[in-house]
Write a structure and sequence with these properties.
206 residues, alpha/beta, Ribosomal Protein L4, Chain: A, 2 domains, 7 helices, 33% helix, elongated, ribosomal protein, structural constituent of ribosome
């Protein structure tokens, strides 16, 4: 089993933790990781864009002038696409962008990115993360002690004090275990996880 060091909030090593090989030491499947990222970004799209075609624009039912003899080009409607106020030629319509993945594929993609972070020594375990008050300086001090700048902080459950303390740090994001995803893990250089969150991850993805 792979083992990583456990640090306290002062950045001092206080022990080690054994990580499950079935989660943190699996063969990295880059294809599934890519598929998971594509699916997540696609599923975030609302798909509610809409513009009107010439058949949907109000007005333009009458031919603006007779076909011949006016010196103008022939026109059938003042709502044709070349007219101001006319319809759009290939107008976008609401659509569903969602991409589906099997449950096992999602799990393997998650295990792959967790394994890659462990292999790159970008997976840092904290014994605990408890702040006395909502203070950006406190969370910044913890990350400085760990020598981390761009990080994803993962806690077992949502901690409003930690979340609000990290809100003003542009290169730091926080998430609870139930919202952890492949895209965020890849987006941030380092994953900082509490020891209880590690235990929960092993329980969820076992």
């Amino acid at each position: 089993m792979a083992s990583v060091s456990v640090y306290n909030m002062e950045g001092a090593q206080v022990g080690t933790i054994e990580l499950s090989d079935s989660i943190f030491a699996v063969p990295v499947n880059e294809h599934l990781v890519h598929q998971a990222v594509v699916a997540q970004l696609a599923n975030k799209r609302q798909g509610t864009q809409k513009a009107k075609t010439r058949s949907e624009v109000r007005g333009g039912g009458r031919k603006p002038w007779r076909q011949k003899g006016t010196g103008h080009a022939r026109q059938g409607s003042i709502r044709a696409p070349q007219w101001t106020g006319g319809g759009v030629v290939f107008a976008p319509t609401p659509r569903d962008y969602s991409v589906k993945m099997n449950k096992k594929e999602k799990q393997l993609a998650m295990k792959s990115v967790l394994t890659s972070k462990v292999n790159e020594s970008k997976f840092i375990v904290l014994d605990e993360l408890k702040l006395a008050e909502i203070k950006t300086k406190q969370i910044k001090a913890v990350l400085d002690n760990l020598k981390v700048e761009k990080a994803l902080i993962v806690t077992k459950e949502k901690d409003d004090v930690v979340v609000k303390s990290a809100n003003n740090l542009p290169k730091v994001a926080t998430t609870a275990l139930n919202n952890i995803n492949v895209y965020d893990i890849l987006k941030y250089d380092t994953v900082v996880v509490t020891s209880e969150a590690v235990a929960a991850i092993e329980e969820v993805y076992a």
